[in-house]
Amino acid sequence: MRPPKKHQHVRNAQRRKEKGGKKTTSSPYNRIPSAAGGSPPFPNPGEGGRSDGEEMRARTADHLEALSLEIERKLHKALNSNSQRLKLLQQLFADIALKVDDRARDKILSTNNEGIAPLDEREDGHLCFYEILANHYVKVPQSGRRILELIVQLWSQSFAANIFALLFHRWLFEVPLEGKEVSLRYSSALVQGATNVFWIDIQTNTRYFLPLYHYLLEEVALVPDQLIKISPQAGRNLFCLLSRFMLFYDQDHLLTSFLGHFPAFPNSFLVGGAADYFVIELTDQLQKLKVEPVLLHYLSRMTILQGWELRMSTSTRLKSCLYSFTSPGGPAYPTRTVRHAAWNTLDLLFPVGRYPRHVISLFFRLLYPWYWPSSCWNFVMTCVSTIYYYILNLLVSIWENMRRRDHQRMHRE
Under a CB-based contact definition with an 8 Å cutoff, are residues 100 and 51 in contact? Predict the structure, then answer.
């Protein structure tokens, strides 16, 4: 017999109490489920004898497990669908690289997050899902092993290495591995995936993957005990990778320590020391840049190279690279702003021969008549601006001298 409606809510409450009040929800991103679903019940201090901190950590672990299950589900779907595989992996990569909004942050961040920098100490002020998940897979390694097995089956796909680098860059160095072949395969995938995601930051002129670069630089490259956990070739590739993106992520304050930990290369007697390798990688990176704000940022940060003792071949390579950005034509086709920034950097790093370079550049400009109108106009505007600011500074200095004399005269009286 069906119970009366007035007692139905009492029976529903009893069922929820017996089941723990759990519900199910599908998507984990920016709509974080509890245990497997909706909002978690308020903790009861009398049940189980657990404190508020333990209850919060338990709920956080449940949320992260739900996220892991969603990632595993998408990887299974990509593995079983040949036609949609690339699209599904691309969507998964975009999901784990998303920023965590305030509502989701309160649910998935516990009081015990030693591996994650606080928001008030971050330059960009935001937190991404991959940082939280990477920290979770270090604390709970078995949670990520199923995901890792699926990623290994998708190694040949373009976004598989990117996803591995974001989710397991901490796991690779903080969880014991079985066998050198496994370490070699994972370390190579880490370097490849990190290269891809750093180039995404370059192309978009953002810093979403700065935490990954921070970890690889400060927790791996500058810590010898961590670096020996990967193969020597992967370690050398990692240092070359960090050299290419150090100026972009504004980590040049660690450059001295970074060069001190630079590994030995087999062809060092031909190329040079750590400074030569760093400059060679930086020069190659400059020639690949096509985003003007990023290129200007690199040129402005290259002043740290002033006074370095480099081999003649390395110095010539750097000089040729900078000189290629000073001409308006090919192969770089730089804008006027880039040309002036390149001239300033070139004159600062190589002051010898500064004026002959400018004279030679002027004669080469005369060979391209179609650049004459713009060159003349920019020359006139530069002269007018220089004269204007010179007169303005002169008037200000005269006014300051007059005020200083009046003040001295009043002080004497």
Answer: no
Task: Kindly provide the b/e burial profile for residues 41-79, where b requires at least 16 CB atoms within 10 angstroms of the residue's own CB.
Answer: eebeeeeeeeeeeebbebbbbbbbbbbbbbbbebbeebb
Phi/psi of residue 24, nearest 5 degrees: -120, 145
Quote the CA–CA distance of 253 and 250 in Å, as a whole number.
8
Closest of 290, 284, 299, 190 to residue 248, by C-alpha = 299
Is 99 in a helix, a strand, or coil? strand
Q: Where are the domains of the chain?
A: 264-369
Residue 128: Cβ-neighbour burial (10 angstroms; 0-12, 13-18, 19+): buried
**Residues linked to residue 186 through DSSP beta bridges, in sequence order:** none
Can you give the pTM of this predicted structure? 0.76
Could you tell me which residues come within 8 angstroms of residue 100 by beta carbon, excluding any fewer than 6 positions away? 30, 108, 126, 127, 128, 129, 132
C-beta of residue 92 within 8 angstroms of C-beta of residue 78: yes
Angle between helices 336-349 and 292-301 (to 10 degrees): 20
Q: What is the pLDDT of residues 276-325, one digit of tens each?
A: 999 999 999 999 999 999 999 999 999 999 989 999 999 999 999 998 89
